[in-house]
């Protein structure tokens, strides 16, 4: 068997262990310390726009705290892009609220501004104004930021920007992770940079950051004993994990370049195969190309190709299964136009890591060429 080629695997810079060693040497082995502060500073200088960053245990916990900061509670409704990873939607349920799922548009595969407005009007007419909108830059492709923000602003509904897959992407030269009223990042093992597991909240005010850190560290009141007037969480990032993050920040831009060059190589290699199409960047959109995705002409071709790659020990995966198709969310309201169903049937993510060698990419490309040569 040839060695496995993964979809997206961790890619260290070599600097990470310096920060971890420093943490051990100074005994900062805790969910606070110089690496946590340093990683937050690094992210703030990277994102610009005077944002504040709170380093947390995961992207999911960042989303959960965002909903809490926006006052989402039992019985509320929160709008969420349907085509996404379940972690975008689950925290809505943690709060006892109901997710309302919105379909995608075909140009970025993200939340459709037209369906969004239809949904908001309909929910308001039913007496339930949504408390927030969760929009996602899927696979690193920025959503239609202006259109989505315009609709949300018109109805005065805050936007939570799920930027878990899009660190390093930008829209009209402003970095993804700075467009929401609150934004979140993820540093899970398969993301563009990783801390093994981790996430962050990006806020517009110092006060929001302070509240997030307060809730993430068990909501301790200011007293010598342990006193609580609010329910707290254990959601802060550890100082060891943050050390990995500091090392990873030094190679973020080069990882983006490499992932974009993977995408370009696939594009050039398959442009003569009629059954394969790609998602191109609309004007003003710059994607980190976290995962390189292709659309096939049918579900049969997509599944045939996936199995052919699997035989070659090459990992590939269908695009995210929309939340409105998930058994757990079958009773949630949704506003659909068919786009995300079709993307799920016909889309496939190809190996996309920043650590893929020329030989590995060649293996993927020849396996795909072979599949279309014989079928
Ligand atoms: C990975 C991911 C998350 C969750 O981040 P974790 O750090 O794994 O909790 C949320 N939303 C999207 C779109 C993701 O891809």
Would you kindly provide a written description of the structure presented here, covering whatever features stand out?
By secondary structure, the protein is an alpha/beta fold. It folds into 2 domains: 16-249, Type I PLP-dependent aspartate aminotransferase-like (Major domain) (Aspartate Aminotransferase, domain 2, 3-Layer(aba) Sandwich); 252-374, Aspartate Aminotransferase, domain 1 (Alpha-Beta Complex). Helices cover 38% and strands 14% of the residues. The chain has 12 helices and 15 strands. It has helices at 16-25, 34-47, 59-69, 90-94, 113-125, 145-154, 206-216, 239-249, 252-270, 299-311, 339-346, 358-374, and strands at 52-56, 77-81, 98-102, 133-136, 159-162, 170-171, 174-175, 182-186, 199-203, 277-278, 285-286, 292-295, 317-318, 334-335, 347-350. The chain has an 8-stranded mixed beta sheet, sandwiched between helices. It has a 4-stranded antiparallel beta sheet with strand order 10-12-15-13. It has a 3-stranded antiparallel beta sheet with strand order 7-6-11, with no helix packed on it. Helix 1 packs antiparallel against helix 8, helix 3 packs across helix 7 (206-216) and helix 10 packs across helix 12. The radius of gyration is 21 Å and the shape is globular. It binds pyridoxal-5'-phosphate.
